[in-house]
# Entry
Amino acid sequence: MIDKNPSQHQDPTAKSSVVRLEIDGDLAFIVIDNPPVNASSVAVRSGLLEAIQHVSAAPGIKAGIIIGAGSTFVAGADIKEFGRPPAPPELPTVLAAIEACPKSVAAAIHGAALGGGLELALACDARIALADTIVGLPEVTLGIIPGAGGTQRLPRLTGIATALDLVTSGRRIGAREAAKLGIIDHVVDGKSLHDGAAEFVRTLPGKRIVADLVVPPETDEAIAQAEQSALKSGRGREAVSEAVKAVKSAATLPVREALAQERAAFQQLRDSEEAAALRYNFFAERQAGKLDGNAKPLPVKTVGIVGAGTMGAGIAAVCAAAGLDVILVDANAAALEAGKGRVSTALTDLHRVGKLKVPSAEDAAAHVTYAGDIAALTGVDLVIEAVFEDLRIKTDVLERLAATVRADAVIATNTSYLDLDQLAEATSRPHDVIGLHFFAPVHRMRLLEVVRGAKSDPAALATGVSLAKTIGKLPVVAGVCEGFIGNRIYAKYRAQCEYMLEEGALPQDLDAVMEDFGFAMGPFAVSDLSGLDIAWATRKRKAASRDPRERYVGIADRICEMGRLGRKTGAGWYDYSAGSGRGAVDPIVTELVRAEARKQGRPQKIFAKAEMQGRVLGAIVNEAALLLGEGIARSAAEIDLVLVNGFGFSKFRGGPVFQASRKTSSEIDAMVDAAGQATGFGFRRGDVAALLADIAG
Ligand code: 3H9
# Structure
């Protein structure tokens, strides 16, 4: 918040509704007030230009200080404007006016100065920040590069190598680190930002135009190393290679020429498919965390977890990593001991990737206590059962939990497939029950499906969503059905791939084509990684109730019957006898696939890539349309979030539904028809037009 100063007054000449001038003696505070994050929309840019012109001309004003109202400085360009033609004045015009202003102009920063927000600050003569401020140029995470001088002014303060790291990773850093790097001139301690900035600005000797500075000298090796590492982590991404080119040009081109080139690259990338996909993702993520109504989440400080297996231990680790107290319960002492090991391994891994909110893995581990009995959970705020996926076992645990935990505690189940409503009804308090469907490995996977049962209390659901955010997960709300959003779609995707096996394709063809489509790994490679046995057991369990008219592909069963259960047995769809790395194509599997196909008597063909991808996209989009129509998913974009964050689809391509929205409706209809024909009995057609309209809206 900006502090009020008794001597300050509003200047009547400032006309903009989102930028106002507050005069404090001989200083003009230029206040940007454009909630929620002071994005530099066209109104902000016009207001800033007008304010700078005023500061330049007003005789009693010695310097200007740009400051943000509310919780932040400026979070960047208004991303909503990117889909439209740029409207004047553009940000570079405003920045040029700041540099041309005969008086010093400083940026007083709190909250965040990101993207265009940091570029605005870099065009000022000085940057003053509160200690908990974050700064960064996250443009590459939106598929673009900085478009208002970030690639030119930043290296003049930090050197090329550091700028390459910051611009190509989009990493956000704190004010103290930024001060060490020369980005921030003064960190305000022990006083308000207003006072700290005013005091510092009065000491400024005059203008210090960053664009006029000489890039600090560095060794060629340091630059080459930073470049290589940037290109390695951003492999194949145009935004990253363009960012590298732009930053390096700071040392070789006259600044005006380099700024013009940066702007041209920014404008070209802004219209790219990748940028459109990442923007879509950005707004979808923000929507996903919101719930209808105004139910307040209950505060959660202590979480109980029942079951110390892979999932339970993973959940315990992510909760502890976020600083929550955890009680992990398992009646089996050996399982509890093994769980301790799993928690510790996950915490070490989280520490390695910088995802601990507490100082160390040991600190996080100290947040977990272990118990052999559910009776230890009487005081927890929320409990998650993560026991074996079996209706009888889960029902029993939930009943006991309902009788044990506080009357106001939330009871969550981590079931993947069981009927949440049936589980909830088995307890005496179904309104307290929600689903929290984590994905394995829990400490790596960002997705958390928060499942709303028919009787779930809105406050219980809000608590689940809030917990997800606390532990760094992306919550997506789902209704009750078998497989919720993600597994239900994945089942249709996988089935379509198996149909194609029977029609002439091979696992390696399909895997390669699905990776090209956007999945990090094809479905058969994924099966080998996670193990074929669980799905096999499920198929056997369901065999008796399966309608004989349903198309059923038995190839996976044959593979399992050979003892090939995936990587863990050295063979599955592929052969892993050579050791680590990708498995090798195995002629035994090829022959098995061909033999099964012959047995079914299906016509064989050579699939083109487009046909394979079309069949899969048709199957996914159709199931997505059904999920939306049934109210299981709240929006098309949330379905994409599930596939991106839980199933490895590339976020740079938005998601399968986003991909479908880039095609014509007749193309999509043909894909759905093809998927439907291949499925045969039991295929239900969803309202795909409504799904795609949901994205467009
Ligand atoms: C850029 O600057 C390019 C330049 O180089 C070009 C120069 C020419 N625009 O995240 P939250 C909305 S590219 C529009 O939940 P938090 C967001 O949708 C930009 N809207 O809050 C949400 O709206 P709603 C580079 C934006 O406190 C609300 O603000 N900048 C923008 O958890 C609250 O958002 C970035 O990439 C925006 N730029 O986190 C920074 N930013 O309530 C992106 C946010 O209607 N922003 N909104 O759903 C962030 O990282 C976080 O929002 C921030 C606050 C850390 C600032």
